[in-house]
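Quick one:
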Amino acid sequence: MKVEEGQPHPLGATYTGEGVNFAVFSAHATRVDVCIYDDAGEKEIGRVTLPEYTDEVWHGHVPGLLPGARYGLRVHGPYEPENGHRFNPNKLLLDPYAKAHMGELVWGPELFGYTVGHEDGDLSFDERDSAHLVPKCVVVDSRFAWEQPEGPRVPWDRTIVYETHVRGHTMRHPAVPEHLRGTFAGFANDEVLRHIRDLGVTSIELLPVQRFVSQSFLEEKGLKNYWGYDTLGFFALKPRYLHEPSIDEFKRMVDRIHAHGLELILDVVYNHTPEGNELGPTISFKGIDNASYYRLMPGGEDGPGARYYINDTGTGNTLNLSHPRVLQMVTDSLRYWVTEMHVDGFRFDLATILARETYGFDEGGGFLDSCRQDPVLSSVKLIAEPWDCGPGGYQVGGFPPGWAEWNDRFRDTVRAFWKGDEGMAPALAGCMTASADRFNRRGRRPWASVNFITAHDGFTLADLTSYNDKHNDANGEDNRDGHSDNRSWNCGAEGPTDDAEVNTLRARQRRNLLATLLLSQGTPMLLGGDEFGRTQQGNNNAYCQDNEISGFDWEAIDDAGRSLIAFVQRLTQLRRDLPVLRRNRFLTGEFDEELQLRDVTWLACDGNQMEQPHWDDPRTRCFGMLLEGHARATAIARRGPDQSVLLVFNGWEDAIDFVLPPASDGAQWRLEIDTAQEPPAPGERFEAGSSYTVTARSMLVLVAA
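Output:
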């Protein structure tokens, strides 16, 4: 095959109209070959050596090559593991910039750069060809006729996130044709999207859809990587989610999501790859330039040497975002998903690692600075999972302006309060006000706190109220995996029960948890399926359950499920209608002398303001939160006063009489929600000073009428 000089940019395989330009970064390689395969991806039909090397980029142009061409890389260089180099041209490699992949990875000893079982371990060299086990990269044509060229760009203070899984959400959906279930085409079904939209949420957050693999130990047990947190291609889609082998299917899904007024946020994993540690396979980065792509241990007297990997992720390796070309790859990938695929934001798995330099976490690190100044990335939603297992890895509240963060303190506190733990009132008050002690700095706003009760990792809402203990036997790890500190409560029976009293209490607890989540300051995130009581049968670590455990059972939704859906819709409507519930400034509780009021007042059961002894009493489990619509910050934001809202929490086992405080302008209080009523019957009015009996373990929402 003929090959010309080509260009060193853009990286990857780019169709030029006359052929395909290949550009591959490797600072330490001595030669890069591009292998071209037939349409089946099985037979090599041509090979070219990239002829030019510019600024550590190997490049060349192949005239006449068209979109759809299948290819892989073979990279030559030193095999010196002790110096961090693991080049082995016997191993076919995936292009880090490939926009599409064909086929699935097949595990076998040929994937490894060393000879598995050799007495020298990873210092040995394996000469077997791995091409028959490796997916092939595909050259794509990026042209697409968008019907919705712009997303809805939902303001942060109006954002409600809905976390779900493209396969689990649709694999049992009756409105989705069977051959489309589990695919992007299936998720684009209008009935699927109408349900999400009608809940009142604004932004769909999909678990990883970038190309990932299933680990060999799972396949040996007949399981699969369901969640997808093991990304191999940062520009490519998971082929299994495509009904047709074209990235246009994903684009059509995005178009339909935007047509329903919803945003799409992708959960992305840029902290590690499936290549593992020194004993892992050679599939892509390790064989292209191991010493550049990964953080390696220091050599000499300071450490064991570059043969070994820094493992801040717990997966065996850590991507080296301190290297400019690796940082470029990640930011190029993010821009690609925004500009070419039209997604509206990202949730970053183990994001602390992305902000970690050689000396540790730095909120002014290269990656965070790159996102902050980038005109594309700074305009979309950026959500961090602000922890990893490395030193100093817990960084909730530590990210810079422009970022939102998962707030696990909210999750743990709200669970503990409604479970009945003592001493939780002060912590709950802090969570209801967007954890200002963590986030109110450098001009950050309350939306920076992404509040959640449940997520993919852990119990669903139904299981949180039905199980005291995890039940992960299906994972094949003797129930040792998953969190043991769930702060869950089964309400009197472990698992499913016919006990009417237990089921009534469980339903009320679910309403309590949902109301607390959706009426707190900050950005709420709802786990898909919680709106109708989806269960995973007590499994709190369903990462490998690509089956009915994780699949949403839409046909099993009963009257209780439909009632819970209606309850969620009522909560999201209140959040939309009452701006005081989604303030864009942190509440302070300070007294405004001019207006003679506070933006938030905490009330004891007698209707008076809580004093320090109330907060210090660990038995305080019933109190009120008065949000004043006439407060200055609210009025400025609205150009006029808003309605005031009173939230009352009763975590006691007994009913309590709560005295209603005066409302602004002498208004009455109108009951909007009492979680003890099934279904809730809003509309009743009460005078200030009257007493309302708050049922045990229940919550009230009243609005100044």
